[in-house]
Design goal:
Cyt_c_oxidase_su5b_sf, single chain, zinc, metal-binding, 3 helices, 3-stranded mixed sheet, alpha+beta, Cytochrome C Oxidase, Chain F, Cyt_c_oxidase_su5b, 7 strands, metal ion binding, two-stranded antiparallel ribbon, binds zinc ion
């Protein structure tokens, strides 16, 4: 009656598991591992590169752009009907106004 035994008995011996792939978390190192850990923690944008929806964008309430560095290149889609982006550099602590009238300010975040 050996054919009625569960397959699990054949796949594992002690702590090691045979016949399957290792956990990807054991293979990655460095920034790739930190990115994977951030994804596992629920942060779907650890590098802060996804598009940000513009808020009021006034001088008193500028759009906050996260950055782990002292400057960041920003692309603004000034008009929803435009097919191009306006690029500008943002510097930490300096309010910057796009040609469309929106104000932007860099917001420091911890590096990954
Ligand atoms: Zn703009």
């Amino acid at each position: 009656m050996w054919w009625l035994r569960p397959v699990r008995r054949l796949r594992s011996v002690g702590a090691r598991v045979y016949g399957g792939m290792h956990d990807p978390l054991d293979h990655v190192t460095g920034i790739e591992k930190r990115e994977l850990l951030a994804h596992l923690a629920g942060d779907c944008d650890p590098f802060r590169i996804m598009a940000i929806k513009k808020g009021p964008g006034t001088r008193e309430r500028p759009n906050l752009i996260p950055s782990a560095f002292c400057q960041r290149l920003l692309a603004c889609r000034c008009c929803i009907h435009d097919n191009h982006l306006e690029y500008m550099w943002l510097h930490m602590g300096c309010l910057t106004r796009c040609g469309c009238g929106y104000w932007f300010l860099l917001c420091p975040v911890a590096p990954l």
